[in-house]
User: Which sequence fits this backbone?
């Protein structure tokens, strides 16, 4: 089970809260890759992502005993990671993103050379598209579609309402869909003047925000309209690419950061 689904009452979390070092380490090991990916996507360079990971892990280790579970664990963790990112970025004029590392890690995990090449192209376009998004949209899509938080958990991490989160999410997804469309649905016809804003509608449908009748109408239109059908297919594929970009293997330096956080905790007088 992903750590994102851990309930505040989960025994592992409970043991970590009560000073069980093995439980804390297990928790940090499961959390670290997601925080590292968040750092890579959100805060600039590989070394910044390492620093953000380190700071976040140490914050978790030192404050987990006071984590009461008023918010979801994922909201708490990503809020810490986000603060660490903001601190890193502050005062730096030129923000550049380093999605390259993320692409390399991801395409390396594909099975065949052909698939690797195909994945690589998709991930390159996806990474460029993500990097081109305004930060507010990017963090919404990273948390919801890449790391798999619920809308409520992602809103909690960002300190915004669920409605605001969803509105950023719809725009972010539409922007990604547009960028990836030539690659994913190269022969798609253009939508007609009667076509609705299908990507946004479909995104709202995915968030469970449309009633039954609206859903039925959309599905009917999509079934009859090749242009909107292609838009929905491209959106689905783009979201799948987002999801699969979170399953890359754990890199050794991420493991090392967990060990360092545990050592720092010991140094601070923990168990
Ligand atoms: Zn249409």
Assistant:
């Amino acid at each position: 089970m992903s750590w994102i689904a851990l309930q505040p009452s989960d025994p592992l979390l409970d043991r970590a809260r009560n000073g069980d070092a093995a439980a804390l380490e297990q928790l940090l090991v499961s959390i670290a890759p997601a925080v590292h990916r968040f750092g890579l996507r959100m805060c600039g360079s590989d070394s910044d992502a390492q620093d953000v990971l380190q700071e976040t892990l140490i914050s978790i280790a030192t404050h987990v005993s006071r984590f009461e579970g008023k918010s979801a664990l994922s909201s708490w963790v990503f809020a810490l990671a986000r603060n660490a990112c903001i601190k890193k970025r502050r005062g730096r004029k030129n923000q550049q993103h380093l999605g390259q590392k993320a692409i390399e890690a991801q395409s390396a995990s594909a099975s065949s050379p052909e698939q690797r090449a195909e994945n690589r192209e998709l991930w390159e376009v996806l990474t460029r598209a993500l990097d081109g998004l305004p930060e507010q949209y990017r963090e919404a899509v990273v948390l919801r579609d890449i790391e798999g938080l619920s809308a409520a958990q992602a809103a909690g991490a960002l300190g915004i309402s669920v409605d605001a989160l969803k509105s950023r999410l719809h725009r972010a997804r539409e922007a990604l869909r547009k960028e990836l469309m030539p690659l994913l649905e190269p022969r798609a016809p253009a939508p007609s003047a009667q076509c609705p804003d299908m990507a946004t509608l479909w995104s709202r449908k995915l968030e469970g925000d449309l009633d039954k009748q609206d859903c039925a109408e959309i599905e009917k239109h999509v079934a009859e309209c090749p242009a909107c059908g292609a838009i929905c297919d491209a959106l689905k594929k783009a979201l799948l690419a987002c999801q699969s970009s979170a399953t890359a293997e754990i890199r050794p330096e991420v493991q090392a950061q967990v060990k360092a956080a545990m050592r720092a905790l010991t140094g601070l007088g923990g168990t």
Q: What stands out?
A: The CA atoms of residues 40 and 102 lie 7 Å apart.
